[in-house]
Amino acid sequence: MTRRRTYLDANVLIAAWNGDDESRAWARAVLDDPERHFLTSDFVRLEVLPKPGYCRRPVEVAFMQAILSIAEDVPVTGAVAQHALVLAARHDIAPLDALHLAAAAAGAADEVVTFERPEKPMCRQTEISVISLRAIRDEAHVGGAD
């Protein structure tokens, strides 16, 4: 069985820890999926570790570190930064979102999973497959699967 190479956006980890009940469930379903091989980068670490560390929330830090420790690390390189610049300019993507997409591409990710709104440029670009859990969750509501 080949597992999908999934780059996790930081907001998925944040939702898994302190999202509302529904968002937490969607995020944890991804994290618990045995058919996924997770990828991460220092960009994700920068988003999920400093604040809970500074605010002395050791259980949250431990939760984030546990997830990050099982993920394959994509090194942050100049090539990743250059690719992010190209993506950001081509698609009007926010800087950190572009860095995540470039890191995912460098790690040969099959997909990026995020909680970003589907209308955001990161989700609309087509160079790297992006799955918006927010879009899936909202579609489930429209379809009557509450």
Q: Mind explaining what this structure looks like?
A:
The protein has 146 residues and is an alpha/beta fold. It has one domain (4-140): 5'-nuclease (Rossmann fold), CATH 3.40.50. Helices cover 58% and strands 13% of the residues. The chain is built from nine helices and five strands, in the order βααβαααβααβαβα. The protein has helices at residues 10-18, 21-31, 42-48, 50-54, 58-70, 78-91, 95-106, 121-124, 133-142; strands at 4-8, 36-40, 72-73, 111-114, 130-132. The chain has a five-stranded parallel sheet, with helices on both faces. The model has no long low-confidence stretch (mean pLDDT 95).
Span of the ends, CA to CA: 32 Å
Beta strand % = 5-15%
SSE pattern: EHHEHHHEHHEHEH
Number of helices: 9
Structural class: alpha/beta
Using the CA coordinates, give the radius of gyration: 15 Å
Fill in the CATH topology: Rossmann fold
* DSSP strand tally: 5
Within the largest sheet, what's the order of strands? Answer: 3-2-1-4-5
Count of domain modules? 1
Give me the oligomer status. Answer: single chain
Identify low-pLDDT runs: none
What is the average of the pLDDT values? Answer: 95
Largest sheet: 5 strands, parallel
The CATH homology group name: 5'-nuclease
Keywords:
146 residues, alpha/beta, Rossmann fold, five-stranded parallel beta sheet, 9 helices, 5 strands
Short description:
This protein is 58% helix and 13% strand. With 146 residues, the protein is an alpha/beta fold. Strands 3-2-1-4-5 form a 5-stranded parallel β-sheet, with helices on both faces.
